[in-house]
Amino acid sequence: MMPAPKPAFLRHLMGSMVLAAAVAGAPLLSAAADAPPAADAAGAADGAGAGAAASGAGSAGLFTVDSLSNIPAPSVDAKAWLVMDANSGQVIAAHNPQDAVEPASLTKIMAAYVVFDALENGRLKLDQKVHVSEKAWKTEGSRMFIDPNSDVPVDDLLQGLIVQSGNDATVALAEAVGGSESAFVALMNQQAQELGLKHTHFVNAPGLPDPDHTTTVQDLALMTRALVQRFPQYMHYYSQKEYTYNKIRQGNRNRLLWVDDTIDGLKTGHTKSAGYCLVTTALRDGRRVISVVVGAGSEASRAESSLKLLNWGYKNFDTVRLLEAGQSAVTAEVWEGEADSVGLGLDHDLWVTVPRGQADSVHTEARYPQPLLAPLSADAVIGTLQVELAGHTLAQQPLQVLAAVPEAGIVGRLFDKIRLLFH
């Protein structure tokens, strides 16, 4: 429990005594005498992150929430799979989450992300017409059936990329954004690095087979979470069931759109070497869950496995909001400042995923250097908020100062220095 706030009026009552003690040569505590070394304080902040720590069971050191549950994951016939809660970013369960896999047309998740980014930054417009090059027209694989040397609106090409999984549409958009497909692929790889996708490397835009074109199901889930959170305004493309272009009607290959109306995406993929792949996301009562299945044996198998993972994740795990953005996680005592205390919190909502019925057992602990000395600037990171369940770390978040605390005047600072001698 934090000490009670210091009554501000004591500073005025004790001002003359403090000054007298200073003149008399009473020893005054150095501002850093009892404070943690700078490296320790910085280390607490550096260790914070949005994901769960690897303190429990899981694959390849990855903590999975199902390690805290006695309900087994469903049987999934695939090379690798993963189910993630998008609200918290926590992996609920996974199989071979960090094994290198061929993404096939799941590559188009990142291709679309880069196109969406160009739209939001004004480098591209939905009604802008894109000239279709011979190279785009000749791209092998699934097609939108655009004509060479024609001019096609970006909106149509996006439907060709997302709904029809057209490789020709993908390359046309890549050339519009990057100037060339190779330049666009460089943007895809740059974006992958910025999103922290450590095991992803793209060689082409649409996902054609290449031994160096690889990712993992963990990275695919992170990629999908980033897309749905940053670009919700474009999610309608992913729930679109069909699109007709050049008098050719093609249906969305994600058959789960016809099975469950809470499913609103996201992308299918298939090559002979990759097998049948599907990234699925559903939104139920404000909670979004993502499933990734790679290397299934058939189109029916990937759909069935994805739906099983989604339903299992919703039924057996809860996601709760522990803290709202800007809400105090703790009120910390401040020394040598104009205020006696300050709230420490987060700049975003904090969600955690736990086995059903265990939310009340979640424990949080604020860790920050003490004594906490002014001046403190608003939004400064000074520690971490540790979230634990049954001795396992669910999350570590950077604690931020919610309001600036200027340094007090000389009387207030001297008073606190004296008090710290006896603290």
What descriptors fit this protein?
17 strands; 10 helices; six-stranded mixed sheet; alpha+beta; five-stranded antiparallel sheet; about 25% strand; about 425 residues; single chain
Helicity range of the residues? 25-40%
Strand order of the largest sheet: 14-16-17-12-11-15
Largest sheet features: 6 strands, mixed
Strand content: 25-35%
**Tally of extended strands?**
17
How far is the N terminus from the C terminus? 15 Å
Low-confidence stretches: 1-58
Secondary-structure element order, N to C: HHEEHEHEHHHHEEEEEHEEEEEEEEH
Question: What's the average pLDDT?
Answer: 87
- Number of H- or I-type helical stretches: 10
Structural class: alpha+beta
What coarse outline follows from CA principal-axis ratios? globular
- C-alpha-based Rg, rounded: 27 Å
Set out the fold topology:
Blueprint: H1 9-23, H2 38-46, E1 80-85, E2 91-95, H3 108-120, E3 129-131, H4 134-138, E4 151-153, H5 154-162, H6 167-178, H7 181-194, H8 217-230, E5 242-245, E6 248-251, E7 263-271, E8 275-284, E9 287-296, H9 299-316, E10 317-323, E11 328-335, E12 341-345, E13 350-355, E14 363-367, E15 372-373, E16 381-389, E17 392-401, H10 410-421
Parallel strand pairs: 11-15
Antiparallel strand pairs: 1-2, 1-9, 3-4, 5-6, 7-8, 8-9, 10-13, 11-12, 12-17, 14-16, 16-17
Helix pairs in contact: 1-10, 3-6, 3-7, 5-6, 6-7
